[in-house]
Amino acid sequence: MHNNKKILPFIYLLPTGILLTIFMVIPIIYTFYLSFFDWNLIAPTKDFVGMRNYIEVFTDPVNQKVLMNTFFYIILLLVLNFIVPYVISLIVKFFIKRMQGAYKIIFFIPSLFSLVVGAMIFSWLLNPVSGPVAFLFRESGFVLPNWTNSGGLAIVVICLITNWKVFGYNFILLLTGLGSIPKNIVDATTIDRIPKWRMIWNIVLPMNKSIAIYVLILTIVQGLQYVFTPINVITTGGPYYGSSNVLYHTYLNAFVLYKTGNASALAITTFLIFLVLLYLEIRFVEGRSRYE
Amino acid sequence: MNRKKNALWHLPLMIIGIIALLPVVFMISNSFKTLQESYQSILSLIPNKPTTINYTTLNHQVNLARLAWNTFFMATLVTLGKLFTGLLAAYAFRYYQFKHKNLIYLLFVATIFVPFTIVMIPNYLVIAKLNLLNSVIGVALPQLCDATGIMIFLKTMEKIPGSLFDSLKIDDIPNRRIFFNIVLPILKPSIISVGAMFFINSWNEYVWPTLILKDKSSFTLPLALQNYISSEGGTNFPLAMALSSIMIVVPLIIYLIFQRYILNSISNSGLK
After folding, report:
1. Cβ of A114 under 8 Å from any chain B Cβ?
2. A48 at the B interface (CB within 8 A)?
3. What tens digit of pLDDT does each residue of B31-66 get?
4. Domain endpoint, select from B38, B56, B74
5. How far is CA A132 from CA A139, A231, A233, B205, in A?
6. Mutate which of B118, B176, B231, B237 to test chain A, going by most A C-beta atoms within 10 A?
7. Do residue B48 and residue B66 come from a single domain?
8. Do the Cβ atoms of B27 and B239 come closer than 8 Å?
9. What is the complex's ipTM, to 2 decimals?
10. Which of A25, A127, A217, A256 is least surrounded by Cβ atoms within 10 Å, i.e. has the fewest?
């Protein structure tokens, strides 16, 4: 009986454990292994090249461009998918009294739709020649720049598409965090006639820190993966890698150019960046270990 | 004065609401326009002469029933798999003490931070070896567990007092009965909401399926839609919008039915 009790939890963890071992742990190790070889995904032999693939990650001009783009993506995603929803959730929580529920329900609706749908709608809305936004620009005497010709502008459009999808989700997460701040603290500041912005800056933001960091990190980690879909659907990374990021470039190397080793080295590099973020998540969000 | 100030705060919120919904309204409206009309009356939300021509054309060009079935079948497999593995794992974390529990839990959570690019090459090779390319089973197989589910289930289970579980154990009530008669009924709302989210996400999934499904007969709806979008700008938008409108029906219905559950579970996933 006692023995049984010791084995049982592991039996319950077994399905998840097996799946994670086969489809996550071993693949990570294998990708690490592949990153030291020159291979094309098909050939029976792989050539050992040592650190060459990693050196290329940082020296190859296309890779450098893609890394810079990734940095630009992160900044934009942080502003659009973290700061803006945070400000909006503060407004909904502290500055209005009615319709909070309605805003929650409406803002969330785009999260229900595939990013392929979002990419399609926005490539129509923002079509520089025949789209409605270009039409409105023309009517009022402006010209909508042809964003498909410029890597930087294409990145902005791609981030806007993912923002359309994840805005409501992040908004609700942040709003929930604000909801868990004790009401009497907020009330006390109103009685003392402390201005709202000071209450938010000095009390609300520090108290909401852990959930905010959780959303911030999620914004980077998931955001960089979300933008993959609009990149692939609208620009395929162009013009000339201008809108590609590390994840998309990994895919391109692996399944279009068949440079498996380069792709693996890029994937490992991405993973290392994400590990730093994971460390921050554990440090600030999971807090003290859960089961001690 | 105060009321006016309040109305001012509603302005940005309403603009965001419009940005959220207007594209979808445009999409549905355009799906009932002819290609010509979509160019001529670009800003009109109500078609002059509503037509179902895009839907009938679509029906000739692709096998809609097949696409819907592939998507539904894949999403169902993934959802059931994630619910099953997630509930079992959360149960173990909640009611048992074992070695390295904290470390194992953190490892599970850490999987959220693994970029899909690092597993995609080996997983592609495994699915190819198993002869599951061009099969939605091959798409579903690596995705049958999910740390987010475990986190939310665990959170809900923590609301069930541990003493209840201990007394049941002393009475030698078998695990199977505790799980089915006590834990599952209490967890019903989170199972519904987490299940709904899993299903919707899988219904919309694009990246991994594009690697595995190359044959058109194995396509899911997002892949079929991608085929209608051309990066060179020659897209027949009313047609693509008709297919999109069909695609969003299922997530919308799920949301309308389970809206409150879904919004609650997102809240729970963030609270630590």
Report:
1. yes
2. no
3. 999 888 888 888 888 888 888 999 999 999 999 999
4. B56
5. 10, 22, 20, 28
6. B118
7. no
8. no
9. 0.92
10. A256
